[in-house]
Design a protein that fits this description.
TIM Barrel; globular; binds iron/sulfur cluster; 10 helices; single chain; alpha/beta
Length: 274
């Protein structure tokens, strides 16, 4: 059986603004996905299956592009130029706020050529600040080629234990942690996010291991803690899927968020509030 990482596009080509890929949403005026006001372009497909995923409509790399599906989920095949001309409509906001383009998903690196061409053209042809939200479950050489045109990388640490990571996300975390270790030693502006999911990754063992890992990095990154929420529940119903988080009914409350934040700060982690 092919490893899931092998399913990534393996070629990373030069700039091609006619190249097309599948986008499942373009969201404007975001202030939580990189600095300033940003437009988020969501690319279809993800090799992970996190139980708490709030974007189940973005997991399939080859979604149904028929009219009905397009109306419900906004799936579109778009060229690099079409995406960036659309993003450019908000250019005035980026210039004033220090914002720009953020690629998200799904896992944007799964459409490697399209992702790279978007970032390259965004920088060279449009002068945008660029950010990418990635699971970093991707071949290191692909990540590194993409980062040449990326100003900010936002990546998750979900669980430190490899077995639990596989149990709750579908994949082992070795590749992810290796990527983070290498990127933290580079010039890339790295922001780590921790999706705090009660009962799954809020135990002291996981928090301790995560703190140890983060402070051991060559350039310890900032950490944002994101509380689990159920905003995606309705989407699972619309897709005819069962919501996977059957055991968890509540988001972490303020006390829990404060406790985890203080716990990690005490261990030397640079926690930032979003
Ligand atoms: S990595 Fe992100 S998009 Fe992929 S399954 Fe996990 S939460 Fe969903």
């Amino acid at each position: 059986m092919r490893n899931k990482v092998d399913s990534y596009q393996q070629t990373v080509s030069c700039k091609n603004t006619a190249l097309s890929g599948i986008v499942f949403n373009i969201q404007r005026y975001s202030i939580h996905d990189g600095p300033g006001i940003r437009t988020i372009v969501f690319l279809s497909g993800c090799p992970l299956r996190c139980l708490w995923c709030s974007n189940p409509e973005g997991l399939d790399a080859n979604p149904d592009l028929t009219q009905n599906a397009r109306q419900q989920w906004k799936y579109r095949r778009m060229t690099v130029k079409e995406v960036l001309d659309d993003v450019a409509k908000d250019e005035a906001f980026y210039r004033r706020s220090g914002g720009g383009l953020t690629l998200s998903g799904g896992e944007p690196l799964l459409q490697a050529d399209f992702c790279l061409a978007l970032l390259q053209s965004a920088k060279q042809d449009y002068g945008f600040s660029t950010a990418i939200e990635s699971s970093l479950y991707a071949p290191p050489e692909m990540v590194d080629k993409t980062l040449v045109y990326t100003d900010y990388l936002l990546a998750d640490i979900k669980l430190m234990d490899a077995k639990k990571h596989k149990e709750y996300t579908g994949v082992d975390n070795t590749l992810i942690l290796d990527n983070i270790r290498r990127i933290a030693a580079s010039k890339t502006d790295l922001i780590i996010r921790f999706p705090l999911v009660p009962g799954i990754n809020d135990d002291q063992e996981n928090l301790n291991k995560m703190a140890e890992f983060l402070v051991s990095l060559a350039k310890p990154p900032a950490l944002e803690i994101l509380g689990y929420h159920e905003f995606g529940r309705g989407k699972y119903n619309s897709l005819g899927k069962t919501y996977p988080m059957t055991d968890i009914t509540v988001s972490p409350n303020k006390e829990k968020m404060d406790f985890v934040e203080n716990f990690l700060r005490d261990k030397g982690v640079l926690v930032v509030r979003t």
